[in-house]
Write a structure and sequence with these properties.
Structural class: mainly alpha
Number of strands: 0
Distance between the termini: 29 Å
Number of domains: 1
Order of helices and strands: HH
Number of helices: 2
Largest sheet: none
Strand content: under 5%
Helix content: 55-70%
Length: 37
């Protein structure tokens, strides 16, 4: 399988304190776009 599904789930887990590399990636892209969660 290629790609990642459900970015919102990874990001929510990351925001809740989980160690999620996909959530961290989403956060870095939101930071670059200056978008607040």
């Amino acid at each position: 399988r290629l790609g990642v599904k459900c970015l919102h789930t990874h990001y929510a887990y990351f925001l809740a304190g989980g160690d999620d590399p996909v959530g961290r990636w989403v956060q870095s892209h939101l930071d670059a776009a200056e978008v607040a969660p």
